[in-house]
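Deliverable D4.2, example record:
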Amino acid sequence: MRNTCSKRKIWNRCIFFRIGIKEGMVSMRETIRRKPLVLLALLATLFMTSGCQSTESSPVPAPSTVAEDQTIATVGGTAISRGQLLERLLSSHGTETLRSMMLAEAVKEEAKSLQVEVSSDELEQELRLMKQGYEDEDEFYKAMEEQLGMSREEVLEDARYRLLLEKLSIQGVTVTETEIDEYLREHSEEFQPRTQYQLAQIVVQTEKLAEGLLTRLTEGAEFGDLAREYSIDEFTADEGGELGWIEDQDPFESQAVFQAASEMQVGEVSGPIETDHGYVILRLDGRSEVQTRSEEDNRAEARRLLALGKAVSTKELEHSLLNKYHAEVKEPSLRP
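Output generated by the structure prediction step:
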């Protein structure tokens, strides 16, 4: 059975990569807020083809310029020009996009100054965390493209940026071994082995309807067909009820569902399970144990989380870096 990541699961795994410990901190599961990545390419293309060139010298010849009054679309007898599109994009997203570009340069300068880098191993580890809950790498990148509009290269660049900003934020922060010991004791559940379940569900409003659907399933009805026809869960109904792989601590799912899944055999259908969203008929398609980390890795993770808890917020760090490197918006219309 193929693994289908619903929109809800995309939101869970693609946006909340880790569980935050401090508001505004680039820490565990921070929300991707660098959506201008998608706009950068479009704005850059429009600028270049409209005759605007980067102030940085480059050995690569500039592309042929295209007039801003070039028609790029028509509606009835009305033409929409390249210049109109550029003006609308700059008006709507220009300030945010420009700030992201300036931040990227400031972070790059600071990292170079402090000789801070993100290793390939660190980036790969971050990507592994991001890919949890997906059947394979292709499924993950497809989801990122469809739901967030991010290419593979943009996903990698965003992950690298967040890790670099995280490293900069904890420069000079001290964490003692005693603090690590205490953290591991108080948060022992965070370091326990995790179980992943591959689930499919049908969610209905009444227990009576759920019982009726269970009867039809025992009589040979197709689970996916019933899910598409009866399930009220908008995120999974169209996919035949498939939730994909989810961890047993997933905050988006009812603990009653995980309790039932833990007692089921692969291939079994169970229910009705009462939840806040209705009555669930559950099918268990797979179960696996998430690989546990070594004691050394657990201590390193605890150290990192504690350091992030002491560090300045992302907002403060970014603001200080822009000031440090004298960031200035020259175009009045793009100033905040």
